[in-house]
């Protein structure tokens, strides 16, 4: 059976911008209906949507194959669509889908359906082929690409029939941020190109399941050149002294043959700084990758620490002491200490791994320490770290500053005599890198400190005005930097009102508003992930649900990985949701006698149901706003 | 490496949903998984590869797993195929 026999030109639409998945399905079913492919468009459409509900038919790599067996068609029929920029289709790699084939088969179609799917899949495995489909401007060209591929398919050996044998002439590493699809597609494309060019190639895939086909030192030593096709940082230290070509993973899929030819003439990698960045990588994209390197390493600390702290509240009894809730019982205190220790690594790890991504290994130490300095708020005036924490925003600054300062040092040291080469990594980079990063933090931390003092004073002044406005402001501040000057000022203000509050009347209203504000950000993010998974990366989708627990326990830090990855959208959404919760909490006259504990201190709060309602309303508002803001941006295409 | 032979029982064969389930089943074990059928070898961790092999009901396939948890991986994969995959 020829694919093109089932796919006349009238059933191909190219480069049509559609709003979302359902609009694409509407268009494809219209194409079939207009060309006599189906006698019941509505039934066909319903069947396709029902199939999508069982699981997305997006298969990664920007491709989706919605399909249905339906009584609405008499004979197998295909329709095809390409969408510039793509639409969200729930793909396993989280990438937008821009190449869509609709397959409709009759209900009694037997095995034709399977054969059609198999035939199409076999063709779509070839990234060069899918690229030609995407490049096609007219349906006739699209069809002839398929025809050409079908001819090839009969001549070429079956895919996966063999890997290159013998010592590889070129060794390659492929990697993408999620490590699900592109890593393997690029590896396959490179291996095939190697076969076509009779160049022996070995590809190490650094995917989500760990590195596979790991290159041995002998193979690296024996290879002519090294090719890195990766959209994330790859440890290059083993390739020192080899010609090394570094490109984004997509290049490995699109033009593997060119890359294999070019690699031997690439400059020899001498170590030190990162390899020349991929040529077509934009500054914004690099920035994002560096940021995500920090966030992904920080995430386990947030989750592990957060859950242990939540456990501490679960195992404790607030009646034993409101002020010390979470540490009243030894087991709770221990859990809280272990979780707190994990939290203490959060900002250093964030800053350290951002720096590592920029300046390679020499930048790791200054980044780590910079993050710790941001956390302690150490300055000239308060070197002991009793200052105000610069929070995660400060840690972001520290990480980028450390990375770039070390890059700068590497460039400056390039002029030093060769004899000094050995002392660079053991003396110059650590000492100068640390000193410079520390100085940068001396500039950042006091600003944060002054901000903190000013905010505290402003809140105190507001305390004499509208209580609802105060509740909104204090709660929104909790969400702005989740541990930085805004958050600390609001929290400190909340606890200071506890001292004056009448505990028999339930405690402090400001404290309740502040707690509501601190609970909303993780809750809003968790809700947004549950309701709108399309707008989050696969890693975010996996870690999202943990935020329900963290939010309920008033562990605002759960939101940090999300806020750090996309601050401009996440922070405003969280702040508005938190503010709304705080304002409602004030309006309802809620009050809390305890500074910690979230949902666990609910039983001792005044007007607890109203407080719960305020938090729920703020969460819903924050989640919706986050979904709206995230929608308004074109999906970042990583993997 | 461990391997086992089994037979496709799903009347629809290895269509997309079973292929997705197969990949999801073997992924957590972080093993290399190869499926041999029709005289071809395909990567058992790729939906597209699995589907391109056109595995129909009644067809005998061989599954090979290689990695630290290969035995568990193979057991899970065979159990899935024998369960009919599509339930």
Structural class computed from helices and strand pairing of chain A: alpha/beta
- Main β-sheet description of chain A: 6 strands, mixed
Helical content of chain A, roughly? 55-70%
What is the straight-line distance between the termini of chain B?
29 Å
Shape estimate of chain A: flat
What does this structure look like?
The complex is a heterodimer of chains A (639) and B (87). In chain A, the strands form 2 sheets. In chain A, strands 1, 2, 3, 4, 5 and 6 form a 6-stranded mixed sheet that branches. In chain A, strands 9-8-7-10-11 form a 5-stranded mixed sheet. Chain A contains 23 helices and 11 strands. Chain A has 639 residues and is of the alpha/beta class. Residues 155-165, 275-280 and 633-639 of chain A have low confidence and may be disordered. In chain A, strand 7 (170-175), helix 6 and strand 8 (201-207) form a beta-alpha-beta unit. Helix content of chain B is 34%, strand content 26%. Chain B is built from 3 helices and 4 strands; from the N terminus they run βαββαβα. Chain B has helices at residues 16-26, 47-52, 70-82, and strands at 2-7, 32-37, 40-43, 60-66. In chain B, a hairpin with a 2-residue loop joins strand 2 and strand 3. Chain B is globular, with a radius of gyration of 11 Å. The interface between A and B is medium-sized, with 28 and 26 residues.
């Amino acid at each position: 059976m020829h694919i093109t026999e089932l796919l006349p030109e009238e059933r191909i639409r190219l480069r049509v911008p559609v709003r979302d998945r359902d609009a694409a399905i509407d268009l494809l079913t219209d194409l079939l209906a207009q060309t006599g492919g189906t006698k019941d468009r509505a039934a066909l459409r319903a069947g396709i949507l029902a199939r999508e509900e069982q699981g997305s038919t997006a298969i990664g790599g920007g491709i989706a194959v919605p399909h249905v067996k339906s009584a609405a068609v008499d004979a197998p029929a295909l329709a095809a669509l390409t969408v510039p920029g793509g639409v969200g289709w729930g793909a396993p790699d989280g990438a937008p889908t821009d190449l869509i084939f609709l397959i409709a088969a009759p209900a009694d179609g037997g095995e034709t359906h399977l054969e059609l799917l198999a035939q199409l899949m076999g063709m779509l495995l070839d990234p060069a082929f899918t690229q030609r489909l995407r490049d096609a401007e007219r349906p006739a060209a699209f069809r002839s690409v398929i025809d050409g591929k079908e001819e090839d398919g009969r001549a070429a050996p079956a895919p996966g029939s063999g890997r290159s044998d013998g010592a590889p002439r070129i060794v390659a590493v492929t990697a993408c941020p999620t490590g699900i699809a592109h890593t393997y597609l690029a590896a396959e494309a490179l291996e095939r190109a190697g076969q076509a060019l009779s160049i022996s190639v070995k590809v190490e895939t650094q995917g989500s399941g760990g590195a596979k086909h790991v290159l041995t030192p002998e193979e690296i030593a024996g290879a002519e050149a090294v090719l890195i096709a990766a959209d994330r940082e790859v440890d290059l230290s083993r390739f020192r002294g080899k010609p090394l070509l570094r490109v984004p993973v997509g290049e490995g899929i699109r033009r593997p043959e060119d890359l294999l030819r070019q690699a031997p003439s690439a400059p020899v990698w001498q170590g030190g700084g990162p390899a020349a960045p991929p040529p077509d990588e934009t500054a914004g994209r690099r920035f994002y990758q560096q940021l995500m390197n920090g966030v992904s390493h920080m995430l386990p600390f947030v989750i592990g620490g957060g859950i242990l702290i939540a456990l501490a509240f679960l195992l404790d009894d607030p009646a034993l002491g409101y002020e010390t809730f979470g540490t009243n019982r030894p087991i709770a205190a221990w859990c809280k200490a272990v979780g707190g220790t994990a939290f203490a690594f959060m900002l250093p790890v964030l800053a350290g791994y951002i720096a590592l991504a920029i300046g390679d290994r020499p930048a790791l130490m200054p980044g780590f320490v910079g993050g710790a300095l941001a956390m302690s708020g150490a300055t000239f005036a308060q070197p002991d770290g009793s200052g105000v924490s610069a929070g995660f925003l400060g840690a972001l600054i520290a990480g980028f500053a450390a990375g770039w300062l070390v890059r700068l040092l590497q460039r400056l040291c390039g002029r030093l005599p060769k004899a000094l080469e050995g002392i660079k990594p053991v003396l110059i980079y650590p000492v100068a890198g640390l000193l410079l990063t520390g100085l940068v933090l001396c500039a950042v931390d006091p600003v944060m400190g002054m901000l903190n003092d000013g905010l505290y004073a402003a809140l105190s002044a507001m305390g004499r005005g509208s209580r609802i406005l105060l509740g909104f402001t204090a709660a929104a501040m909790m969400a702005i930097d989740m541990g930085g000057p805004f958050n600390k000022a609001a929290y400190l203000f909340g606890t200071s009102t506890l001292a004056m509050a009448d505990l028999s009347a339930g405690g402090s209203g400001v404290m309740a508003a502040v707690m509501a504000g601190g609970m909303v950000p993780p809750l809003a993010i968790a809700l947004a992930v549950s309701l709108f998974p399309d707008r989050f990366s696969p890693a975010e989708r996996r870690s999202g649900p943990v935020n329900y627990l963290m939010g309920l326990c008033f562990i605002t830090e759960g939101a940090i990985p999300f806020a750090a990855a996309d601050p401009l959208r996440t922070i405003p959404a969280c702040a508005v949701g938190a503010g709304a919760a705080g304002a409602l909490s004030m309006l309802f006259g809620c009050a809390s006698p305890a500074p910690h504990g979230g949902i666990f201190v609910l039983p001792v709060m005044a007007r607890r149901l109203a407080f719960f309602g305020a938090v729920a309303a703020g969460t819903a508002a924050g989640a919706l706003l986050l979904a709206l803001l995230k929608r308004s941006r074109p999906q970042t295409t990583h993997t | 490496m461990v391997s086992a032979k089994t037979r496709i029982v799903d009347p629809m064969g290895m269509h997309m949903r079973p292929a997705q389930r197969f990949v999801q089943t073997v992924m957590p074990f972080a093993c290399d998984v190869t499926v041999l059928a029709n005289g071809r070898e395909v990567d058992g961790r790729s939906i597209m590869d699995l589907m391109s092999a056109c595995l129909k009901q009644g067809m005998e396939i061989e599954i090979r797993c290689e990695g630290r948890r290969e035995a568990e991986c193979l057991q899970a994969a065979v159990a899935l195929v024998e369960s009919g995959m599509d339930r």
